[in-house]
């Protein structure tokens, strides 16, 4: 048996939404994006809102993903630094100059 809240929530999901004060540029961008992906505007907006809401509701997962990016960048920078040092040592060895 559904609770009163669950019943109201399920009814709200099936009712259409009206979103006001959306700028013309945003509307045009949404229409283009939906067409590009072969979706209706409702399907595209539903997918994007769902993705954004899930990200906002999962800060731990989001933080974990953000932490991985800087570590990858740091690893790449360290690798580049080692290569530059190796090239410097080789060039110093070739002509004896700093």
Short synopsis of the structure:
The longest helix is centred in the last third of the chain and has 37 residues, at 59-95. The radius of gyration is 26 Å and the shape is elongated.
Number of spatially distinct domains: 2
Q: Count the helices. How many?
A: 4
pLDDT < 50 runs, ≥5 residues: none
Mean pLDDT, nearest integer? 75
How far apart are the termini? Answer: 81 Å
Shape, per Cα inertia axes? elongated
Major sheet, described briefly?
none
Q: Give the H and E element order.
A: HHHH
**Structural class from helices and strands?**
mainly alpha
Indicate the percent of residues in helices.
Answer: over 70%
Alpha-carbon Rg, integer: 26 Å
Q: How many beta strands in the DSSP annotation?
A: 0
Beta fraction: under 5%
Task: Describe it.
The protein has 98 residues and is mainly alpha-helical. It has 2 domains: 23-57; 62-98. The chain is built from 4 helices and no strands. The protein has helices spanning 4-14, 24-36, 41-57, 59-95. Helix 2 (24-36) crosses helix 3 (41-57). The N and C termini lie far apart (81 Å). The model has no long low-confidence stretch (mean pLDDT 75).
Secondary structure layout:
Elements: H1 4-14, H2 24-36, H3 41-57, H4 59-95
Key descriptive features of the protein:
4 helices, 2 domains, 98 residues, 0% strand, mainly alpha
């Amino acid at each position: 048996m559904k609770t009163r809240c669950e019943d109201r929530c399920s009814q709200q999901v099936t009712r259409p939404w009206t979103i006001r004060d959306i700028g013309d540029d945003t509307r045009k961008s949404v229409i283009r994006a939906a067409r590009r992906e072969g979706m209706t505007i409702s399907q595209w907006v539903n997918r994007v809102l769902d993705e954004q809401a899930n990200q906002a509701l999962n800060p731990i997962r989001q933080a974990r993903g953000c932490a991985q990016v800087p570590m990858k960048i740091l690893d790449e920078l360290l690798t580049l630094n080692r290569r530059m040092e190796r090239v410097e040592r080789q060039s110093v060895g070739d002509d004896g100059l700093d």
